[in-house]
Amino acid sequence: MPSLLEVRDLDVRFPVGGGWLGRGRRWVRALDGVSVDVAPGEIVAVVGESGCGKTTLARSILGLVPPSAGSVRFRGAEVSGLDRKDMLAYRRAVQMVFQDPFDSLNPRRTVFGTLARSLRIHGIVPQAEMRAEVARLLDRVGLSPGVAFLDRYPHQFSGGQRQRIGIARALAVRPEVIVADEAVSALDISIRAQILSLMQRLRDELGVVWLFITHDLGVVRSVCDRVVVMYLGRVVEEGPTEALFRRPRHPYSTALINACPVPDPVLARALRTEPLGGDPPSPLSPPPGCRFHTRCPVARRVCAEQDPPLRVIGRDRRAACHFAEEAESWPMLAHLTEDTPA
After folding, report:
1. CB count in 10 Å sphere of residue 215
2. What pTM did the predictor assign?
3. Which of 48-52, 131-135, 165-169 has the lowest mean pLDDT?
């Protein structure tokens, strides 16, 4: 199936420091050769620790952060080369749901004012039909009856309700792709489950494609079709969700999966593994060779000398590890079996 959204060899660099005329300036490579595809009908998760480049990737896709190199293509068209009219159409087709459901809403605008503004800018419906359309959008995201919420302000809603309003705002312009940047991390467990269920329902009913940015693998297994794992600005593994959880092919993916909490305390003790040690290296001066080798429990000499490429492993997996084919023998994978609970 052809990709709807294609990211190819994307680099994003940010300047750090530097005195007069930029002397002594250094550069952080927030993204270093990142490639991701999103196909129609998919929910794709991008996961990794804080600082790995997930949010920079999301903002680059939206055009909020210009790339230093590489490309973002939507339906085959290069986004950076779009004129003003086509860029407006692209912004309508690719929307974003932000992490903080309060700060992303204007406290001086009612719900109707927030959603009607998007409808007005893109000419979705006539002025006379605005209130009915906004009410319908609120009903769609579970704020029902929608007419009862039109004239309320953000502070009058709970965190979960505010996030539903953020999703309704993204849906208002009838997008094809929604980028959700840590959209459930600020919510409690029960509300988080409701928002994830809403994402699936909108995908099934409206065909909306989701690029779901998160640091928590525990929330992606039940809703995402594919997982992209990032570390220090690079993609280190990619594959179908269930296959990646059952048999990860990169030690970092394994560490993230092992860090997921298990609700059964007896099973948690049986599956206990050593946590990943150390902190990620500074993106200002990443280590030579594999960037993960300073924390990797299975690293060997070659890992410090040669940078492993992201290569195809099997039919539908990619991993950037010299020893991905030996993953079955890694000690930290011994507890993962076909019977490991979801």
Report:
1. 16
2. 0.87
3. 48-52
